[in-house]
Amino acid sequence: MIEFKFTAEKLNGQTINGTLSAGTVGEGKRKIYQLAEKNQLKIKEIQRKSSYLYKVRRGKDKPILGEQKAFTKKEVEEALARLGFDVVSVNKKLLDFSFNPPTADIVTFVKISAELLDQKLAYGEILNLLINDTQNKTLKDTLKEINNDLKKGADSETTFLKYQTVFGKFTAYMLGLASKSGNMTEIYKATAKFLERRQEFKKNLRSALITPAITMFVLFIAVLFYVGYIFPQTAGLFAEFHIPLPPMTAFTLKMSNFLAANKIEIAIVILIPLILFWRFARTKKGKFVLDRYMLKIPILGSLVHKTLIEVYCRVFFTLYSGSAESIEPVRIASEATGNQYFEDRIKSVAIPLMIKKGVGLTEAFEASGVFTDTAISRFHSGEETGTIKNTALQLANYYESETVYKLKNLIELVQVFIAMIIMIVMILLTLVSAETATIHPNAPGFSNATFIERTIA
Prior knowledge:
This protein is mainly alpha-helical. The chain contains 19 helices and six strands. Helices cover 70% and strands 10% of the residues.
């Protein structure tokens, strides 16, 4: 997140200062001006927190180089002077880029934190240990700032949500909530498990869908290049000399000529839909539609659906503390799934039924239409016996075991299918090439040697 500090003036001339965070510069300025309009303020100055490179020394010691974030150069100079350093230089960092840390680093941070919390180590000490051992610069700087904010007594939830672009919205919320929940260790363990499962599922989904799609695309380009460019260089010579062509060679040459004559039109037909689909998928409506129909894909859709229910139940188990406080866990668990359609059905159907009509949890889930019959049956049993929290955990573990096993089998099946397609394409290309090699000129007085001589000439 980018931090901003602004100076504004009230209608009575009083000057006030404020700070806020935003994901982008544009979003930050928009928030500030909306705040000013709402409170009838006149913005005088907006400053963005940036990175400054400094060089200092103490006495005749060797100069020390470092980096510090601040709103102005003067802030850095004053802070270093207060620490007893002689400031040699302070310059704003020209290329102030920061990339989000890999998901694996976030998972490691949460998992190690959970293990150390389980050993009763103070959270401040845990942060200090991880700050020293973390290699990723963005994550290291983020942990430093979180540690400083918490030492100053800042609200943990607000502090972590400031860095949701680094951790992710759900992870930041859970880590912020942990400090105030009374069961910090359990929430960290549950968050680590959730992140690991999500990472594992994405990896498996890439193996089942993305990797085969890339393989097929590369194969398609290779065949297109062979048919459209390499093959005509040889087979076209036979046509030029009016030599009869075998069926497969003749068909391939027709395809080649068609591709050469209509390459612009073919490129448009292939690329335009892909670009439009990509742009549509990036919109809010597009993501909703894709998330909805993702659940209806044969075989894979069922696995995705059950994985979403697993994630939902795992988060619900962590946050649920009783029927009197069930709305918030229901809402947060829906956001954790990462599926816009699943989340919308919970928020627009299940929660309104629970709030306005006072229906039970199972009835609300059933009305949402995003839970399987098995899940509804288990929730119904848990609601009747008062064990709905444990029921959610049982469902999560059950669907985890099922989806891991079935997804592994699906990946193996897809890999075999792709291998068969590659084999068939290679056989066809080999047959066409072999057939072309058997062509003999049969015109009177026209021999193979004559053909080769004229070809070389």
